[in-house]
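The passage that follows is intended for readers who have already worked through the single-chain material. We present the inputs for a multi-component assembly, then the predicted structure in tokenized form, and finally a short commentary. You are encouraged to pause after the input and sketch how you expect the pieces to fit together before reading on.
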Amino acid sequence: MKRETIRSPRAGRPGIAWALPAVLFFFLFAAAPMGIVGYLSFTDWDGLSDPSWTGLDNWSRLWNDDGMRNAIWLSLLLTALSWLTQTPVVLLLGVWAAGRQRNRAVLSAIFFLPLLASSVALALLWRTIFDPNLGLAADIADWFDLDNADLLGSSTGAFAAILFVSGWQFAPFHMLIYQGGARQIPQSLYDAASIDGAGTVRQFFHVTLPQLRNTIVTSTVLMVVGALTYFDVVLILTRGGPGDATAIVPYLMYETGFRAFDLGYASAVAAALVIVATGTSLLLVRLTGFNRMRSTREGM
Amino acid sequence: MRSPNLRPRLRVLAVSAACAVAATTLAACGSDGPGGSSDRLEVWVYQDGSTTIQEDFVERFNETSDIQVNLTQIPGENYQDRMRTAMGSPNAPDIFFNWGGGSIADFVEEDMLIDLTDTLADDPEFGDAFIPSILDAGAIDGRHYGVPMRGVQPVILFYNQTLFDEAGVEPPASLDDLFSLVDTFVERDITPAVLAGADPWTELMWLEYLLDRQGGAEIFDRIRNGDSSAWGEPAVLAAAQNAVDLVEAGAFGNNFRSVSYTTDGASTFFAQGEAAMHLMGSWEFANQLSNQPEFAESDLAWATFPAIEGGTGDPAALVGNPTNYWSVNANVEGEKLDAAVEFLKLHASEDYASALIANGDIPTTANAESLLDEAPTPEYARFQYEMVRNAPSFTLSWDQALPADQSTPMIDNIEKLFSGQLSAEQFVEAMLNL
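Having made your guess, compare it with the prediction:
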């Protein structure tokens, strides 16, 4: 009789009450703030007095703002370059880490370290490393006989620094995703491939890569949304500078909201970011067919 | 063995857990603000090397007071953001550290602060204890909303005595001297003046003095009081041009934009004898004394910022932070307000002044002069004290004096000016268009 209780259809699906804490949290800390931000984006608010309704003023300002255009361009550039530079590296690292080589566990643990430290600590660390007189950057510039190590002082240098640090910081996370994905590929596929005479490289391109298709989509969506909302390292490492060379959308939002206290306009920037990031990830999921979740292991 | 009763019971548990979560979250949003039932005074202070004094005096105050002071130290450079955000919420502090002027102007406009003018005037022991110009520097429209609570922090031209001796030169008396010093040190392969361009407020210090010497303190005074057309004064253009010329002459080396002050990049470079000068707030001395004591004792020297030929500014005028202030939230009332005033009065006492002196600070109380000999470096203390006493004006740092919506783009423009993205003319235009 007890077994029947467990087997009944209801037993497999927990009651709706189980979802309540998560739903409440979602409404309190995600949906409600988002709604408030949406409302604030139609107001002028300095954070102290009451918001005053200004209709579409913020939105038309957003449309014509050169700073915002620059920020969108930089955000898109950061997103695209992050994906292009990180994916090959983490894919290879992840597949490698899924193997059974000697020292693999030790090296994987070392690679994993950046993910364990707080972003702020990492950004401060890199700021010290990039110091042109005292940091590691100064030594490297010496080795290559460069004039100076003014990396953070040049527009491209500062942008490259952000790209590098963000890649370095999140590589272990994506490596872990690929490691998990690669571990799930049945050994029999490799056995069959080697019987057919495929070497390591062909096995990688014809077995591993196709099998990792859904993993690639997962990692890509996370990378894209992550890069679009990247913020903390920019704040500490470059502060959007030099000039506005690294002022990506989330940083612009912060500067408008919590430095200039123009919270109405900052809300419009934030709302635009939510729309763009949500739209991008939906588009990615749709384009890649991820939403249909077809099994990549047909016939297995 | 699983009991059939398990699931319903778990459901009840889940519902009650969810309710508990919701209840606490909602409660946290709504209550426990100042002036509420809490009988403690929440005091917020910017965390730095002088915070130990606040800890001591809060402890001392709590020994005798029924209403306890709870000191919260807010670390780092984001103090201003956090304080401002908190002031708009029910969790605002009762008493908080600030820079006076623009840093509290918005609060004053919203009637969020207690006007301390009469409190200071009614008690001579309290009100007359402070140097009047310092008390006034934090005032808004002649009303006092803050009580000085830290030492004076003028911006000083620090230099390396040993490097100056080796080159056979003296600290600059004029801008021309400064330019020839730049050439001298560039030839000797020494960075003439270290500048932490990754923290643009250090660039601001140069521009503040260049404008002050060029056109006097009146120009920024007009800007501060809302007349932004004063950015169009010829002196502003001249100051910006001088800044650009200094950059181009190599005064700051060729990589200053990557140098950071907050991670000690500039101070360490200066202490290593790689740079000859460092324009910085007076706290730099205490900083060097604790981090590089050998350098601070044998090489570190100080001077006032040079005059400019043909400039109308008084060469004795100062820029920087006159001091920091405690302000009181207008929600504090009744017994809590009495306790808050008692707490503020503690900062006019000679004990407090002595504690500041022992920490290497110059107090803003009128009696400070007699205490200067107790300072760790009396020579430096006396220089600073006389500098402040003789200054015809003490201009509050522009980024603190202006309201937040102007100071943020101003700092961006200054950064662009120093990095060559804006010419002096474009800088003036950008400032006029703010």
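Commentary: Confidence is low (pLDDT under 50) at residues 1-6 of chain A. Chain A has one domain: 60-292. How closely did your sketch match?
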